[in-house]
Amino acid sequence: MKTVLEMLSGGEFVSGEVISRAMGVSRAAVWKKISALKEAGWQIESGGKKGYRLIPGDSLEPALWVSALTTRGLGRGENRCLAEVDSTNTEAKRMAIAGAPHGSLCVSEMQTAGKGRLGRVWSAPEGKGLWVSVLLRPHLTPEQAPLITLCVALAMARAVQETAGLDARIKWPNDLVYAGRKLCGILLEISADPDSIEYIVAGAGVNVREGAYPPDIAHKAASLEEFGPPPLRRTLLVHYLAALEDVLDRLEREGFRGIAEEYQARSCTLGQQVRVSGAVELTGMARTIDETGALLVESDGAVHRVLSGDVSVRGVMGYV
Predict the structure, then answer these.
(1) Which residues of the chain have pLDDT under 70?
(2) In the chain, which end has fewer C-beta atoms inside a 10 angstrom radius, N or C?
(3) Which of 267, 308, 268, 272 is nearest to 287 (CA)?
(4) Per-residue model confidence (pLDDT) at position 54
(5) CB 168 within 8 A of CB 54
(6) Which residues of 93-129 are buried (b: 16+ CB within 10 A; e: fewer)?
(7) How far apart are CA 273 and CA 57, in angstroms?
(8) Number of CB atoms found within 10 A of residue 3's CB
(9) CB-based contact 88:120 (threshold 8 Å)
């Protein structure tokens, strides 16, 4: 049975009679449900004989976006939309352990302990970004799991281009950047044994509105709103899920070659001078990415295979 929110999600007036028939309840019951939604903070306009119209704003409530999905699996499992959470990745892992199916996800208005790469904290203030983690149970080997981080970056780059009109680039392996500053961070967490993947949680944090990140990192962070009217977060989410399902399908069918060409075309790392720090310290030319997702950097006449660590690109986010 559809909920009142789902019936009003199109933004047009829907009569109380239509709602009552569809839900199998009385007109009085419909009025009570509308009143309860208003008390919960939803903006609903009453138009007399025309009925009711929802003014949804930028809500991430699943009832407002599930009907817009074009996916087969992503977004069609268990969807949690929370006002506040420690970390959407942590919540998605809890969902995975409880048996939630492939494609389930967690979105939250804010995170109190958002996670970044290499143990860093990711700022996620209320209503300022799309903070989302998708639960994946892919048909891949554990050795292929690192390639999913490339898929997530590709999918979000597509979604940003489709909804905000920005040709964002990927800084290896998965930072999304525009105008030399970071728009989106991605963090994957995996549960696997030597032979199979139990689940992967793919977390992404997109800075949508100004104020999404602390002022002290404004030189290397950016939001979509700084470059034009930002998309509704649920619109960005729907496009992201569609793109992610597409690139994951290609990865499962064809392996790395299924995503290599598009990833390389969207990269701001390949063909550039880079500085690598972490387990390996070097400066050189980023040449290509191998079939495992590793970055190959030429330095002092030798080619180094970089699997992890910080990779700074000359002119992007501080390396000049």
Answers:
(1) 1-2, 10-11, 40-41, 115-122, 315, 317-320
(2) N
(3) 272
(4) 77
(5) no
(6) bebbeeebebbbbbbbbbbeebbebeeeebbbbeebb
(7) 43
(8) 14
(9) no
Tokens of 95: 């969902």
pLDDT of residue 117: 59
The two three-digit tokens of residue 124, written as one number: 């996620």
Which residue has tokens 């979604």?
159
* Residue where the block lists tokens 């939630």: 100
Residue entry with tokens 């079939």: 291
The H helix count followed by the E strand count for the chain is 7, 14
Q: What φ, ψ does residue 274 adopt, rounded to 5°? A: -130, 160
CA 162/CA 176 separation, integer angstroms: 15
12 neighbors 53 (Cβ within 8 angstroms): yes
Q: What is the pLDDT of residues 69-98, one digit of tens each?
A: 999 999 999 999 999 999 999 999 999 999
